[in-house]
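Supplementary Methods, section 5.1.

A reviewer requested that the exact input to the structure prediction be made available. We therefore reproduce it here, unchanged from the version used in the analyses.
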Amino acid sequence: MQAVAFDTIGARYGEAFPAKAGQLECGDWLLAELEPGAPVLDIGCGTGDPTIRQLTLGGLRVAGLDLSDGMLTLARRSVPAAGYHRMDMYDLATPRAVHAWGIPELGPQAAGGLAAATAFFSLILLPQDEIPVVLGRIRELLRPGGLLALGMVEADLDYAPLPFLGHEIRISGYLREELEQTLAGAGFAVEGHSGHPYAPASTDLPPEEQLFLRCRRVG
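The structure derived from this sequence is encoded token-by-token as follows.
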């Protein structure tokens, strides 16, 4: 049902969240760290802006993943040079990636194949108990020392309902210290982070503290 909501929201998401400074800073970090042509997966890619556009223009080989057909349609129009997959992120690195979605390049046999992954405000759509599971599955797809750029909302929330652009969605969040502990438990070292107070350009959304973390796979 969350994906259905985002099908309808479409381009209005970008209108509600026009400022992308923290996201772009993470993209700059990836471009500085990775070799040209390195494979990157953008998890919850939305419309493709700004991350897929930034990384593709920077010479990386980027694929976008989303469950919303509407968002993927916009992303393909926005950055046609990238690859795209419709898939539930919970099924990353599992046999369901192959058997349910037909995407073997994101299944168990693809372990260690990605140089980096990004997940900007996509994991917040999961219940808290599923977030460490998905982080662990992302880690499986990363090569040793692979990078993860993550955007989250700093809030103690577990799948709480939130009115969002005419729909109700459910979001989860962590306080900063708990989020870093969760990442460590999933096999990531946090190499840097920044916080950005943010007031969405929409009257029905409360101000929030956005967290951006630059992480590296351990082991």
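The longest helix spans residues 21-33. These observations are discussed further in the main text.
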